[in-house]
Specification:
The chain is α+β, with helices and mostly antiparallel strands and about 350 residues long. The protein is built from twelve helices and ten strands. α1 runs parallel beside α12 and α6 packs antiparallel against α7.
Length: about 350
């Protein structure tokens, strides 16, 4: 199979993950605000994003439009979109509380919240499903590369388990090591932020640093830095806290997800931030670990209420090795074309459910 053919499959998987991730952030857009901030108007933000007058009318007509976003590396795919939800902020907030969209997504096989310092009990629902034995063997036979995103310590633990096992895959023991690895990564992130994210071992002694990728993605949030510098500083320097006053505007949540991607379980560690400003809100989602197919993801949605409803502006940035290298200039536009319909489909569901309320 050619690399383009492989890319179509991989980006298809990544698009599914994009879609699943937006279930979690898309409904955080429009929560009643509590603090006053110098935010742009809808027209000002559209002008900054180079959204034309014609596209604004399309948004008012219920369409989802694209806006171009620069990419900072050959592994980064960036997608920008804008749409209108014809509902008041409190209606969309209630949809989020009810998980009105995520209940419809069958590829999320399990999920759970991690609180405080985290415990193995928080991860009890992490299972090798689907196809547990097949996936378990991948872990036991893992080597540096892109089949699984693991560091050297994690790989050594699976190798040690393999050496003591018989010919059958000890699924329960593999699950236990996966849970421990997820817990270790969560605790390191909570303690040290982006600097605490353990690298992924690649072939030929190379490493992929998801923390560095997320730092780059965050630096690229130039409008967050412009209009909400305290939030941007928090994202760059997490877990360093906001001031007491600014902290009143922020809520954060930590989750693990198991997503069935073409018969493979994909374990994701997810940090979600909700920042309330005046009568608008910014929702940020960091996926600071994914077990395979992509390295990291950052998504931001800003919701600005108007008389027509709530204008929602989205930017998503994902890192994947599948679009890097000499063919990157050709692969990136193809990848965006493949991924965009999945995201638009999800936002269309958000629009429909909001309108029906």
């Amino acid at each position: 199979m050619t690399r383009v053919g492989i890319l179509a499959i991989i980006v298809d998987r990544s698009a599914t993950l994009y879609t699943v991730a937006m279930i979690c952030t898309g409904l955080l857009l429009c929560h009643p605000g509590r603090a006053v901030a110098a935010l742009p108007t809808v027209d000002e933000l559209m002008e900054e994003l180079h959204i034309s007058v014609g596209d604004k009318q399309r948004i008012l007509d219920g369409k989802i439009v694209d806006w171009g976003a620069d990419e900072g590396s050959d592994r980064e795919l960036a997608l920008g979109m804008a749409f209108l939800a014809k509902a008041k902020p409190e209606v969309l907030a209630e949809m989020y509380r009810e998980s009105a969209i995520s209940r419809d997504i069958q590829v999320i096989t399990s999920r759970g919240e991690i609180t405080g310092e985290g415990t193995i009990a928080d991860l009890a629902g992490v299972k090798l499903e689907p196809n547990g034995e097949k996936e378990g063997r991948r872990y036991l036979e893992v080597e540096p590369g892109d089949k699984l995103n693991l560091n050297a310590k994690e790989m050594a633990a699976f190798h040690a388990l393999r050496s003591g096992a018989n010919t059958e895959v000890p699924v329960t023991e593999v699950e236990a090591l996966i849970r421990q690895g997820l817990l270790d990564r969560y605790q390191a992130y909570r303690k040290k932020g982006l600097a605490g994210i353990a690298p992924y071992e690649r072939s030929h002694g190379n490493r992929r640093q998801a923390g560095d990728e997320l730092a780059l993605f965050t630096k690229e949030l130039t409008r967050v830095a412009k209009y909400l510098p305290a939030l941007h500083d928090y994202l760059m320097n997490y877990p360093r806290g906001l001031s007491k006053e600014e902290g009143k505007n922020l809520e954060e949540f930590f989750y693990w997800l198991n997503i069935d991607v073409f018969g493979r379980p994909t374990y994701v560690l997810d940090h979600r931030i909700l920042y309330l400003v005046s009568n608008a809100v910014v929702a940020v989602e960091r996926q600071y670990y994914a077990s395979h197919d992509y390295n990291s993801m950052l998504q931001v949605i800003a919701g600005l209420p108007t008389k027509e409803g709530t204008f929602c502006f989205y930017i998503g940035r994902i890192s994947t090795d599948q679009v890097s290298g000499l063919m990157a200039p050709a692969l990136h536009p193809v990848s965006r074309v493949i991924a965009a319909p999945y995201i638009k489909d999800m936002f269309q569901k958000v629009q429909a459910k909001a309108k029906a309320k």
